[in-house]
DNA sequence: TATGGGGCTTCCAGTCACGGGAAGGTCAAG
DNA sequence: CTTGACCTTCCCGTGACTGGAAGCCCCATA
C-alpha cells in the first residue's frame, strides 16, 4: 500500500502519517523506489492512533497506549490508569471552559448590542468586575 | 514602572509583557537606560488583555477588543458579535470534550483494571466500536 | 518516444502564545 | 567595589501538525 491509500483508509492526512513515522509511532517498510510500503498492520496501528488522538490523547499518551496494546503481558490496570488520568484532564478542561462560558455569557447578555458605544463587556474586561481569576 | 512591577500588578509574566509589546499590543515608553517605562495606561491595558486572554479570546481577538475599547465611536453590537462568536467556539469545544468524555468513560468503566491483559479500552481503540468519528 | 499528470520523496518554514536560558548591561545596597 | 537583583536582546523549543518548494517516479496516451 502506498501512502495515499493508507491515508484514505485510516482517515488520516498523508502528512500526519509521515509525521508519525518521523516520531517513531510507525515503521513502514520501504519499496525499492523509496516509497513507503505499508502493511495491514501499519494501517491497523494508524487507525488505532487516529482513534486515540480523536479521544484527545496526546501523542505521548498514544505512544504509551500503543506500547500497552502490543504488550501481551500488560495489566489492564495500567491502561485504565492512563485513560482515567486523561479523563480527569478532560473534565478539568470542561470546567475551565464552563467558567469562561458563564462569565462571558453574563457579560454578553448585559450588552445591548446596538449602535451606542456603551458596553458592559468592555467595562467588565477593563474593571475585572465579575470577571475571571 | 519597570517590567517586574507591572508584571506583578497585571498578573502576567514579564515574558508575556515583552511578547505583547513585540506583537504591538502595547507600546511602553523607554527610559534613558533602555528599560521599558510603563505608564498606568499600559498597566491598565495589560490587565485588560490578561482578562480577555483568561476568557479564552485569542491574541487577535484581544487586539480587536482593545481597538474597540479605545474607539469611542464603537458600536456595542460589534463587541457583542465578537464575544458571541467566541462563546460559540467555547460551546463547540465543550461539546467536543463531552463527546470524548462520554466515549472514554464508557470504555473506562468497562475495564476491569486488574493484572490481566484483557482491556476493553484497547480493543475499543483497535476496533473503533463505540468509538468516536 | 515524448510528454503530461499524478503520486511519491525530503526538507524547510510557519502555526499559537508563549517559556527557558544565555550573554551582557544597569542599578541600589552594603 | 562588589554583590546580587534587575533589565535588555536574541535564539531555541513546545505540540501536532500544515503548507509549500524542489525534485524523483510511474503510468498512460499521442
What's the CATH C level of the domain at 1-56 in chain A?
A: Mainly Alpha
User: What is the ordering of alpha helices and beta strands of chain A?
Assistant: HHEEHHHH
Question: How confident overall, as mean pLDDT of chain A?
Answer: 95
Q: Return Rg of chain A in Å.
A: 23 Å
What is CATH's topology name of the domain at 1-56 in chain A?
Answer: Multidrug-efflux Transporter Regulator, Chain: A, Domain 2
Characterize the structure shown.
Two copies of one chain form a homodimer. In chain A, strands 1-2 form a two-stranded antiparallel sheet. Chain A is built from six helices and two strands; from the N terminus they run H-H-E-E-H-H-H-H. The mean pLDDT of chain A is 95. Chain A is 65% helix and 3% strand. Chain A has a domain at 1-56: Multidrug-efflux Transporter Regulator, Chain: A, Domain 2 (Orthogonal Bundle), CATH 1.10.1660.10. Chain A is elongated and about 70 Å long. Chain A is mainly alpha-helical. Chains A and B meet through helix 3, helix 4, helix 5 and helix 6 of A and helix 3, helix 4, helix 5 and helix 6 of B.
Amino acid at each position: 500500500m502506498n501512502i495515499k491509500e493508507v491515508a484514505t483508509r485510516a482517515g488520516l492526512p498523508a502528512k500526519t502519517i509521515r509525521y508519525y513515522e518521523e516520531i517513531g509511532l510507525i515503521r513502514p517498510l520501504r519499496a525499492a523506489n523509496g516509497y513507503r510500503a505499508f502493511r495491514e498492520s501499519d494501517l491497523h496501528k494508524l487507525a488505532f492512533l487516529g482513534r486515540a488522538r480523536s479521544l484527545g490523547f496526546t501523542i505521548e499518551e498514544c505512544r504509551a497506549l500503543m506500547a500497552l496494546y502490543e504488550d501481551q503481558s500488560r495489566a489492564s490496570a495500567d491502561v485504565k490508569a492512563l485513560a482515567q488520568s486523561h479523563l480527569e484532564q478532560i473534565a478539568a478542561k470542561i470546567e475551565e471552559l464552563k467558567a469562561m462560558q458563564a462569565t462571558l455569557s453574563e457579560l454578553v447578555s448585559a450588552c445591548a448590542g446596538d449602535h451606542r458605544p456603551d458596553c458592559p463587556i468592555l467595562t467588565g474586561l477593563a474593571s475585572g468586575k465579575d470577571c475571571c481569576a
